[in-house]
Amino acid sequence: MKKLLIIGDGDIGINQSDVIDFNIISVENLTLEEFYMYDNFENCIIMKGLIETSDFMRRVLEINKNFGGGFISHCDVFKRDNFSPIIITDSALNIAPTLQDKQEITKNAIALARRIGLSDFPIVNFLTPSSKIDKKIKSSLDAAELEKFVANNFQGIRTTHNALDVCFSDSAKLKKIDGALRPDILICDNIDQSNALYKSLTIFGGFITAGFIVGNENLPPIILTSRSDTKESKIWSIKMMA
């Protein structure tokens, strides 16, 4: 049976009957030595319990360092009735990513889109206030460079740089605004932007979400959800990585 390792207090509202394919194991403080005990990663998922995100990530970063390192980032997948899933980065890990960081974040998000079957060729939007490149806006300048990066490294993947309303507004398509494509992935400029968007979608928009730490294929799936996420969101996160 697969193992669901909940790090921290395991009282997160999920019962064994909710995830019958998993054996739930709560571990207060997952040390590197304890992690080696669960070496069959194909049958193991790590999940944040009732523990501070910074404490949880400290353990994850230590494990990541000892299993090949590499750049890891946070992705959330959002869904709602009559709204196809979308991936949004990075609301919990990388605070003020550099241009190079955003390249890695983009790579990780594309890999996740392919892994969960969202799309082999996801449309990627780099979130910025204007559809025109504005030299006074950092996110706009980064978006221009990131589109070049994707074009040079991911054949067949389309990119845009637009504000949120242009991405999802029918009127934007009617007005034929440049690059008004409905994206599969939203790359946010920083944690302030992405965290506010995350909370807005879940609290006001009625979306459920699944959250993951991605970027190191040597690690088992790592689920990072918010304390305010619903039981449905947490179970969906587990099922997506099963």
Can you walk through the features of this model?
The protein has 242 residues and is α/β, with parallel strands linked by helices. The protein folds into two domains: 1-70 and 216-241, Rossmann fold, CATH 3.40.50; 74-210, Isopropylmalate Dehydrogenase. It contains eight helices and ten strands. It has helices at 32-37, 53-66, 99-115, 138-153, 164-168, 170-174, 191-203, 231-241, and strands at residues 2-7, 22-27, 44-48, 73-80, 83-89, 124-126, 159-160, 185-187, 208-214, 222-223. It has a ten-stranded mixed sheet with strand order 2-1-3-10-9-4-5-8-6-7, with helices on both faces. The chain is globular, with a radius of gyration of 18 Å. 38% of the residues are buried. The mean pLDDT is 88.
Distance between the termini: 11 Å
Gyration radius, in Å: 18 Å
How many strand units?
A: 10
Helices, by number, come to 8
* Largest sheet composition: 10 strands, mixed
Q: Can you give the mean pLDDT?
A: 88
Helix content: 25-40%
The CATH topology of the largest domain turns out to be Isopropylmalate Dehydrogenase
Instruction: State the domain count.
Output: 2
Strand order, largest beta sheet: 2-1-3-10-9-4-5-8-6-7
Spans of at least 5 consecutive residues with low confidence: none
CATH class of the largest domain: Alpha Beta
Write out the CATH superfamily name of the largest domain.
Answer: Isopropylmalate Dehydrogenase
CATH architecture of the largest domain: 3-Layer(aba) Sandwich
Strand content: 15-25%
Class by SSE composition: alpha/beta
- State the order of secondary-structure elements, H for helix, E for strand: EEHEHEEHEHEHHEHEEH
Shape: globular
